[in-house]
Amino acid sequence: MSVFGFYDGAQAQDLGGGVTRRILNYAGGLMMVEVRMRKGARGDTHTHPHEQMTFVASGSFEFTVGDETHTVKAGDTVYMPSNVPHGTLSLEDGSVLIDVFTPIREDFL
Length: 109
What we know:
Strand content: over 45%
Number of helices: 0
Distance between the termini: 11 Å
Number of strands: 10
Shape: globular
Order of helices and strands: EEEEEEEEEE
CATH class: Mainly Beta
CATH architecture: Sandwich
């Protein structure tokens, strides 16, 4: 990508089940991704070697990281360490997450 990432130029990808993903920008060892979810949509429990920090931009979610489950809302953050199982359930229509990964998710490209 570039020093600047322009939202208008970032294509949204429909992942099915009421989830879309938009790669906002990536460079060096960082990647930023927007995830939009309708109410009841799930990010199934999974692991990956990347560290991940998630900012709840709008709406609310039930997040499970390892054996901890909490409800988070706009303004909250969640940290997923490398290789720790995690998943989420969207509790409201129009809920939006901003995910930051290190290193970048080559599998998203």
